[in-house]
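Slide 14.
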Amino acid sequence: MASKPVTVGDLIHRVATSCLSNRLPCNYIRDSVDSDQEDDDDDPFADAVSSSEKCRRSPSAAEVEDQEQQQEEEEEKLKIWEEGGQEERKAAKGDAAEALMAEVFDAVSGVRRAYAALQGAHCPWDPDKMRAADAAVVAELRHLARLRDRFRRSAAAGHIPPPNPSAPPRREAVAPYEAALDDLQRQLQSKQAEVDGLKEKLAAATSRRNGRHHPSKPNGPGGAPTADLFTTCAEQARAATRAFAAQLLHLMRAAGVDVAAATRSLTKIPVSSPQLAKHALEAHVTRCLLGGFEHESFYLDGSLSSLLDPAAFRRERYAQFRDMRGMEPAELLGVLPTCAFGRYAATKFAALLPPLVEEAILGDGEHRRAVNGGTHPRTPFYGEFLRAAKAVWMLHLLAFALEPPPSHFEAGRGAEFHPEYMESVAGAPPRAGAGMVVGFAVAPGFRLGNGAVVRARVYLVPRGGRP
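Slide 15: predicted structure.
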């Protein structure tokens, strides 16, 4: 085609073929004729060629409108599809962010609950609950740290929209909560100090109540000792030994000592619950303080004054009882540390706590060294011990001031429960025919000369069972 010469006939043939293959509008011939008449000087072949090209490029107005409408519909569909994809991606990111925030709120609520449990374990002080609550707080904080790392990874991968740059920094957002937490901790410390002060005041008030002189009714005519006065003193002695046993149990828990193992080593009683440990320690304290109660000097010496002049000995004992009743034991031992009561307290303290147990509970053996050196420590723990020791010493003075002196008895392990001679430390007496027997004795009982009975305290177990 390139080498073939182009002639006028070839051009006419091409134009005719193009016009036949493409329908021309009705005014095409007229326009062409007019244009030919107007432009006689122009090239006719150029006019023919340009007219054919116009025929190909200029469709009708309806067709142009249809094409433009189709193109607009296609562009609108494409735009809708692109907007739909963007909305789906935005919705997916929003769902991921909402799920993560829900987990964060749950984790924060878990931290609040764990911190509330930690506060509850402070008062009353419970080391076991403290350890469990502390572990729960650490676990919740670790959960929050994992959520933080997950948020950072998701934000880096584009799964979660980035944070607003205009938002305040995290440190500034957390600062008010840290300040509130510090304030709560200061309040907790002040409350704990207040509780300790109230405990000391309660102990002092209890001591004053125990030492307050009672009305003349229980003392009988002429101020002579009576069985009712002995019963009252016996109850006071039991209350004092229970208080000291509770203090001892509290110190064991605070020091992190295995309460069951320590109680078994002291009492030889298998301990399976905190309530049982409390009663077992009370039995141990009572047994140590009342050991040798039947002797006039707790076997601290070989005195037999009660046999040489029984009446004078009873008067002397009752006089000592009245003189010592209104005195604080620490004040008495501060003046006369080696008096009879001082020797009794030193001996019983050494028997009450073995050296290893004392070091585990108190942290050192300073109390034992002071007692062996002839002095008495001025510590809250030793003060509580002196209150219990004084209550038992007063009961002993009153016992040897009575005529006849009361006899004490103790329920043996496995003995049948008799409500007229025994009382259960659990409070409610067992039902008839319940098959309960004595697991171990907590405190001995006393039979007085007038026939009255101070019942023994016992811990009951099912027949054939163990404490």
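Speaker note: The chain has four domains: 8-58, 64-161, 218-400, 406-467.
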